[in-house]
Amino acid sequence: MAGLGSEEKVPWEIRTLKRADIREVMEIEADAFPKSAFSKEILLKYARRLGEGFAVLVAAGAVQGYILYEPDGHIYSMAVRFSQRRRGYGRALFVHASDNVKGILWLEVRSKNLGAIEFYRKMGMRVVGKVAGYYEGDDALIMLLDQKGPDQFL
Ligand SMILES: CC(C)(COP(=O)(O)OP(=O)(O)OC[C@H]1O[C@@H](n2cnc3c(N)ncnc32)[C@H](O)[C@@H]1OP(=O)(O)O)[C@@H](O)C(=O)NCCC(=O)NCCS
């Protein structure tokens, strides 16, 4: 999958993670989730297990975001480099996953992560449940993709 960024029209592509991308994914992960970033070992385990379900968005010669998802539709995590947010890269990664899964997209998200919740709502997801105390110091909201899907926003 490929396209042009919304602001400066930077060309981007989404492809399966390569081992050499791990360092950049770790940087993005550590910045996005300072208290709970996945270690290199965990990221490599996901890469082995998920294959195409570990996708990165590359623009301007660098990894700018990633998404981890199961073929059945469970999204484990996604993040976009802080300086590159609000350019449509999160949406592109989400649409990529949505195009590639067989089942319904769903995920857990921290109930205090209001920015991500709003992003997922914009992608067409809705909150269908809550798991109290799922995270240390926070509840999880369970969100799933409504029938309309993200394409209505493209
Ligand atoms: C959530 C995240 C992946 C979104 O990535 P992004 O590239 O900035 O998202 P997009 O530019 O594609 O946003 C698409 C739309 O979603 C909405 N949106 C995105 N981020 C938002 C925010 N922080 N607050 C409110 N709405 C938001 C906007 O409507 C946006 O469109 P607009 O910019 O034209 O208004 C990114 O903010 C991120 O990495 N957050 C930290 C990690 C995280 O919380 N991941 C989710 C864990 S489950």
What is the structure about, briefly put?
Strands 1-2-3-4-5-6-8-7 form an eight-stranded mixed sheet, sandwiched between helices.
What does this structure look like?
It is built from four helices and eight strands; from the N terminus they run ββααβββαβαββ. Strand 7 (125-135) and strand 8 (138-145) form a beta hairpin. It folds into two domains: 1-103, Gcn5-related N-acetyltransferase (GNAT) (Aminopeptidase, 3-Layer(aba) Sandwich), CATH 3.40.630.30; 106-154, no CATH class. It has an eight-stranded mixed β-sheet with strand order 1-2-3-4-5-6-8-7, with helices on both faces. It starts with a strand and ends in a 9-residue tail after the last strand. It has helices at residues 22-32, 40-50, 89-100, 114-122, and strands at residues 2-4, 11-16, 54-59, 62-69, 74-80, 106-110, 125-135, 138-145. The chain has 154 residues and is α+β, with helices and mostly antiparallel strands. The radius of gyration is 15 Å and the shape is globular. It is 28% helix and 35% strand. The structure holds coenzyme A (COA).
Structural class, by secondary structure, is alpha+beta
Give the domain tally: 2
List bound small molecules: coenzyme A
In percent, how much strand structure appears in the residues? 35-45%
The CATH C-level name of the largest domain is Alpha Beta
Radius of gyration: 15 Å
Low-pLDDT residue intervals, each spanning 5 or more residues: none
